[in-house]
């Protein structure tokens, strides 16, 4: 049987080895210590109920694997990765069956927020995962979770941390009767503790503002800081707006060149080309005009032709503040979840946000420089081509009419000259 050969010990050794071989310094809370705690709590709760050996094994394996996904991916996707790693390992055992694997996977996925367990096994694992909400460990785990979020780039979640924690505890539900009886009172005390902590922090801030002898200087310094921040924001906003308007102007200039030269080419092809056989001395001027118009159109199109980028970014680029998340070309192929995480990281880091805006302005400026350079070249080509074409027409006509014998007389059907 699959449950023979000391499967419990083999599972524990395998998951422990995963944590040891893939150390993640940012996992202050979702680490091996937490995993072992959930395993112990799951066994404690399961022991209260008369479960079959298969159900007991299901809960045990799910408890060991439920957080290993944190070693490889982001918080939002760690349950799916945990299920994937569990399947890879369990399926190697020839006696494993799909029903057992599906039950383990369901238990792991039941811990995904918002939790919705569908049976007793899933309820046991959910309660084991949140067991600390109802005991004294919560004071320590709450600090660890906050620190981990900060290290992993989830700065937006840290704003008003105490109030968000209180709201989370109020919405939380223990599903098993065992945990309801054992832990509800402890959870209530933890809510009161975090409320007192929030009130103390508020009172300390108020006391400092009212009685600190540095109040005036601090306020003045804060006002100067706010003024400087508003000045920076204004400069960045105006610069971005100016670049946008310059880009619009460049596109309009390119469209004018394309439209005018297209009309000229259309007129030449429909009117003058048909007359070349009757006026061969105009061949060279017409070719020059066509060439200059075509050259101008090509250069104008190149100035407005967009450049396609890869459209993806990697997590390391965001954490190292190397990617510009404000430019669509850097993220259009990324998933919504990846972009939401990246933007929450960006918005939670003021330095990263400002540096990204500055980088975006610089990149737009580089594109504008290339665009205006090509448009200037297109206008120059059009101007020179027009001048040369007119001179060529004038010279051709002058040379032709200076030799009357070369004049070709064109008549209509009635015999009248054109």
Structure description:
This protein has helices spanning 7-21, 32-47, 53-65, 78-90, 98-110, 120-129, 138-151, 161-171, 177-211, 215-272, 283-304, 315-319, 336-347, 350-401. By secondary structure, the chain is mainly α. The longest helix is centred in the middle third of the chain and has 58 residues, at 215-272. It is 69% helix and 0% strand. The protein has two domains: 7-211, Hypothetical protein af1432 (Orthogonal Bundle); 223-403. The protein is built from 14 helices and no strands.
Helix/strand layout:
Elements: H1 7-21, H2 32-47, H3 53-65, H4 78-90, H5 98-110, H6 120-129, H7 138-151, H8 161-171, H9 177-211, H10 215-272, H11 283-304, H12 315-319, H13 336-347, H14 350-401
Quick overview of this protein structure:
With 418 residues, this protein is mostly helical. It has 14 helices and no strands.
Number of strands: 0
Distance between the termini: 105 Å
CATH class of the largest domain: Mainly Alpha
CATH superfamily of the largest domain: Hypothetical protein af1432
């Amino acid at each position: 049987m699959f449950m023979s050969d000391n499967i419990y010990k083999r599972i524990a050794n395998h998951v422990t080895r995963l944590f040891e071989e893939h150390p993640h310094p940012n996992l202050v809370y979702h680490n091996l210590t937490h995993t072992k705690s959930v395993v112990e709590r799951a066994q404690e709760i399961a022991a209260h109920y008369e479960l079959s050996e298969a159900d007991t094994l299901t809960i045990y394996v799910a408890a060991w694997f439920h957080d290993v996904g944190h070693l490889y991916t982001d918080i939002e996707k760690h349950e799916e990765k945990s299920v994937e790693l569990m399947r890879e390992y369990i399926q190697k055992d020839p006696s494993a069956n799909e029903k057992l694997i599906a039950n383990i996977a369901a238990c792991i996925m039941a811990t995904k927020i918002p939790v919705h367990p569908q049976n007793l096994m899933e309820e046991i694992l959910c309660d084991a995962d949140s067991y600390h909400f109802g005991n004294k460990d919560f004071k320590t785990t709450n600090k660890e979770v906050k620190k981990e979020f900060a290290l992993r780039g989830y700065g937006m979640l840290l704003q008003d941390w105490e109030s968000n924690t209180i709201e989370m505890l109020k919405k939380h539900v223990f599903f098993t009767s065992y945990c309801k009886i054992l832990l509800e009172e402890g959870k209530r005390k933890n809510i009161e503790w975090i409320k007192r902590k929030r009130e103390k922090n508020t009172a300390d801030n108020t006391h400092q503002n009212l009685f600190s002898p540095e109040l005036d200087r601090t306020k003045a310094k804060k006002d100067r800081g706010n003024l400087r921040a508003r000045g920076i924001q204004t400069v960045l906003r105006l610069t971005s707006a100016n670049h946008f308007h310059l880009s619009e102007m460049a596109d309009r200039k390119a469209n004018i060149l394309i439209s005018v030269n297209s009309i000229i080419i259309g007129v030449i092809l429909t009117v003058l080309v048909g007359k070349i056989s009757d006026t061969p001395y105009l061949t060279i001027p017409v070719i020059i005009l066509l060439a200059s118009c075509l050259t101008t159109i090509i250069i104008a199109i190149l100035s407005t032709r967009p450049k396609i980028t890869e459209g993806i970014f990697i997590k390391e680029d965001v954490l190292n503040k190397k990617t510009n998340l404000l430019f669509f070309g850097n993220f259009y192929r990324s998933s919504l979840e990846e972009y939401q995480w990246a933007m929450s990281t960006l918005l939670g880091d003021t330095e990263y946000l400002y540096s990204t805006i500055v980088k975006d302005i610089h990149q737009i400026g580089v594109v504008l420089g290339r665009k205006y350079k090509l448009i200037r070249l297109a206008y120059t080509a059009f101007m020179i081509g027009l001048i040369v074409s007119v001179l060529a027409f004038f010279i051709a006509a002058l040379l032709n009419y200076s030799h009357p014998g070369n004049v070709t007389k064109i008549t209509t059907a009635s015999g009248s000259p054109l």
